[in-house]
Design goal:
- The radius of gyration is 23 Å and the shape is globular.
- With 356 residues, the protein is an alpha+beta fold.
- Helix 1 runs parallel beside helix 5 and helix 8 packs across helix 9.
- The chain starts with a helix and ends with a helix.
Length: 356
């Protein structure tokens, strides 16, 4: 019963962490407390250069040590390297004596000699990994190892979901500021138009456009000339705000991700490109369907589409240039017209509509 309560508490913290560094730190503090560890950290590691491993968030690790780690000690961290090469598997370095090279056997010199460590990694893009490390100065018993492994296994899906939302939140806010206007959706691609990062809601909207084609993990344009223009701009690392396609109902913006400001150090797609899509307001097919099928007013439809991307009333008000009270009324009327009784039902119905 206590195990279930601990898990739920950690999951609740993670659900609220995206966009809030203090809550991420709170998650690590609570995790180290529950598992009787002395320190915890979330790291992002470049799989092609382990010297580029960086702290994302940490608990009970002094700033001086974090700087030393990022400057040189990361190259000696054989344990972190090992878990990053074996994602989604939970390891304790006490059990890896024969697998880890180097005199430290994976026990990186750390504050207060916290040489006993647990770790697990998640893939983060094609060339990066996100690792969760926990350490202390006394060995883990067999019972403790079982308990820690079980809790981390239960927490891992929630952690992966929270990190995906963290990326989405950071990119969304920076992209809105960069474009200076709204957008209907975006994806992140490499120079070969392979999709590096996408949001299911945005992908459902983008895939309905007459001018694009998304097959598995690759993006393409139905007009070869437009696709070649995109590829040429990417090769030259150029930004463009006015790539129109043959359907003439939307505008595509190409933005090198490195052009965005204030991204976290861990951003794993920094060499990629954002393709954002913005419908002309009078030719947005999702908006037209909402107005036609459910008799929504244009203002109600606009708020509903914003709600589908982010259900925060404050954010909808800010992005649609309306008061929060007006937004609440529009959402209330939309729920009545769409015959739903909760915001969760509304979100589900809107996503279904967008995928038609």
């Amino acid at each position: 019963m206590r195990q279930l309560s601990d898990d739920l508490y950690l999951h609740t913290i993670l659900a609220n962490a995206p966009g809030y560094p203090l809550i991420w730190n709170r998650f690590l503090l609570e995790l180290t407390r529950q598992l009787s560890c002395d320190s915890g950290a979330l790291l992002v590691t470049d799989l092609n250069d382990f010297g580029k491993t960086r702290f994302l968030f940490s608990a009970h690790i002094p700033q001086e040590y974090r700087e030393q780690y990022e400057d040189r000690l990361n190259r000696q961290d054989h344990f972190n390297r090992y878990i990053c090469q074996n994602p989604r598997r939970i390891f304790c370095n006490q059990n890896l004596i024969n697998e880890l090279p180097g005199e430290h056997k994976g026990a990186l010199p750390s504050p207060e000699q916290q040489t006993f460590r647990f770790g697990v990694a998640l893939t983060c893009g094609q060339n990066h990994a996100l690792s969760l490390l926990l350490g202390r100065d006394t060995a883990f018993t067999d019972i403790e190892q079982q308990h820690i492994s079980r809790l981390l296994e239960n927490t891992l899906p929630k952690l992966q979901d929270a990190m995906h939302k963290e990326q989405r939140h950071k990119i969304n806010t920076q992209l809105l500021h960069h474009l200076g206007d709204h957008f209907d959706g975006y994806i992140i691609v490499d120079q070969g138009l392979n999709i590096l990062f996408s949001d299911p809601v945005y992908t459902a909207i983008i895939s309905q456009l007459d001018c694009v084609q998304i097959t598995e993990n690759r993006f393409g344009m139905k007009n070869p000339a437009i696709e070649q223009k995109l590829l040429s701009l990417m090769r030259d690392n150029q930004e463009s705000r006015s790539i129109h396609n043959q359907c003439q109902s939307c505008q595509i913006s190409l933005i090198p991700l490195a052009a965005l400001k204030n991204l976290y150090q861990w951003e794993c797609h920094i060499d990629g490109f954002i393709l954002s899509f913005t419908h002309e307001k009078d030719k947005n097919p999702a908006m037209e369907r909402l107005m036609r099928l459910h008799n929504l007013s244009r203002c109600e439809a606009i708020c509903a589409l914003h709600f589908m991307k982010n259900p925060s009333i404050a954010d909808i008000a800010q992005h649609s240039y309306r008061s929060q009270e007006t937004v609440r009324n529009h959402i209330k009327h939309t729920m009545q017209k769409m015959n739903v009784h909760s915001q969760a039902e509304l979100m589900k119905k809107l996503i279904t509509l967008a995928s038609l």
